[in-house]
Amino acid sequence: MKKLRLEPLQQPDKIINYWKKDKLVAAFIIVFGLGYNIAAILGPIYQGKLIDALLRGDSFAALLRLAVFFVLMMASIQLMRYLKRFYTRRFANQTSATMRFMIYNSIINKSYTELKHENIGDLMTRVLADIDLCVEGMRKFTTEIFDTGVLMASYLVAMLYFDVKITLLGALFIPVAMAIAEKLKTVIYKYSIDYRTKSSVITDMTYEYIENAMLYRINGLERQGREKYHQELNDLQDKAIKANIFENAMQPVYNVVAMLGVVMVIYLGGSRVIAGGWTVGTFSAYMIMFAALATKASKAAKLFNSVQKSQISWQRIKPYFSEYQSKDTSLDINQGSTSLVIEKISFHYPEAQENVVESISLNARQGEIIGVTGSIASGKTTLGMALLGLYPYSGSIRIDGKELRDYSDYEHSQMIAYLGHNPQLLSDTIYNNITLGGNEDISAVLHDVCLDEDLLAMPAGAYTQVGSSGIRLSGGQQARIALARTLLHKAKIIILDDPFAAVDMRTEEKIIRNLKNNYQQCLFVLISHRLAIFNQIDRIVLLHNDHSFDYGTHQQLMEKSELYASIYDLQRLAGENDA
Fold first, then answer.
1. Pick the residue with more confidence: 193 or 156?
2. Which helix (H) or strand (E) holds 309?
3. In the predicted structure, residue 497 carries a pLDDT above the cut 80
4. In this structure, how many other beta carbons lie within 10 angstroms of the beta carbon of residue 114?
5. Left (φ > 0), alpha (ψ -120 to 50) or beta: where does 347 sit?
6. Per residue in 223-268, pLDDT tens?
7. Could you identify which of 255, 390, 427, 558 might form a hypothetical disulfide with 112, taking C-beta atoms 3.0 to 4.6 angstroms apart as the criterion?
């Protein structure tokens, strides 16, 4: 089977470009669509000829020739119909894949701030349901423009050829059915957008309940959550029913209105047969074409509704389309010793005005571990995020003499490794969570994070499944797997934000010794509120809530900072009591 071509699309927010992208497939759809729907009128015409031949008492040979021709003709017409549908479905599959690819590209290139404010449920609904609805609308439109538009035109021309007066009077109600559908567009839009919005809410609730299932169970909130979820599902059902009534249940109404003209066709057509102007076969062919025309008209009315629904989905996903951005994978990184120089950096979040960190300066080099600590909300994590280059900052952060903001995103990813509060484990094996799909030896890094002994107790070892978000493992094991992933490639700078919160102090001390002994080519920035091992690291930044800071060795801070000394002594005493 031929693979889909996931090639970048220029201007993905313009729907016409998806047809332009597959010009050959679009050409086949046009050729076979026109061929099938124009030739379709030959079916009822030759069926009428067969009826007339039977009534005239033509010879068996003549009837057989006519029947064979009729069967071959219908087979050819159906072949063109099959090819038209095949290429239409192929276009739909390609378009769905391209849209998903372009949205993935857009999401992967969003800034950290934009991603942080995304609603997961709404995003999942847009990426999954809305793309399917949009593509289905495009497929229906592509199909019906031929199977309805061209076919109706073919039938109408043929019927006018048979009799202009009967055709005009019989088709009088067809525009009425289509006008009703047009008037309902506003109502359909309202109910469809209500349904899509509520669907996003339900998706978000589902995601939240799955993620926090144990929290609700432990606190006895299952019943309240179930009742609230049930209420929201009932509301979703009501909105779905209203949306579907106007989209689908109106089809019989359109059909009845369009078929009202059949009375005139039977009366006037029958009169022509009696008068000898038409044969029975001609009348039969005309009736078949009129019924098909009326049915297609009702489907055209429904198509207006389907297209309206698809337009809603298109408007929802359109903001997520952006020009394809290929990552610059060239590297301009000094492969020698690593240095970090921070001079008076200040930082505030885009939505805030006041600085979170202010005028911080320090120097560090490879082989060192720089600790960052401070009271709650003093800016510890913020400093780590600023060093990642995810937010704009003032002042200077130079790595190997080059300003951080002058490195590309790809160079950031190759030069700086980061571990945040959340382990962010995939529902996969321990091995794949550490290598992220790579094929590397992880034995050394497992030893460095003291996880090798834990694996001995697991029958599958490194190939043990961790479960959703690591639920099958302890908190300490989750944290050490995430730490192993961060350490694996020995980046020049490794930022660890509270990596030992779920790890006992004895294991924490072992890991620190391993970092100092086995990662001499790396520079660590260790953000932590636990100071037990800070006497083993090189220098420490102590942040205060008034934006001031102290900087020095452990011994220097013990002597000049009463706050640091008191916190360290209290934590050390607590650790000794626990031991």
1. 156
2. helix 280-317
3. yes
4. 12
5. beta
6. 777 788 888 888 888 888 877 776 666 667 777 788 888 888 899 9
7. 390
Q: Under the phi-then-psi rule, with left for phi > 0, alpha for psi from -120 to 50, and beta for the rest, what region is 2? A: beta
CB 312 within 8 A of CB 390: no
- Spell out the domain ranges in the chain: 16-184+250-320, 339-578
Which of 67-76, 174-183, 252-261 is the most confident on average? 67-76
Q: In what order do the strands lie in the sheet with 339-347?
A: 357-365, 339-347, 394-399, 402-403
Give me the CATH topology for the region 339-578. Answer: Rossmann fold (3.40.50)
Whether 16-184+250-320 shares its CATH topology with 339-578 is answered no
The answer to whether the CB of 186 falls within 8 A of the CB of 108 is no
Q: What is the largest CA-CA distance in the chain?
A: 120
Distances 129 to 150, 310, 324, 468 between C-alpha atoms, Å: 30, 11, 22, 23
| pLDDT tens digits along 384-396 | 888 887 777 888 9
SS3 278: coil
C-alpha 310 chain-centroid distance = 17
What class, spelled out in words, does domain 16-184+250-320 have in CATH? mainly alpha
H or E segment at 26?
helix 23-39
Label the pairing between strands 539-543 and 394-399. Answer: unpaired
Cβ 467 vs Cβ 475: under 8 Å = no
How much is the pLDDT for 350? 64
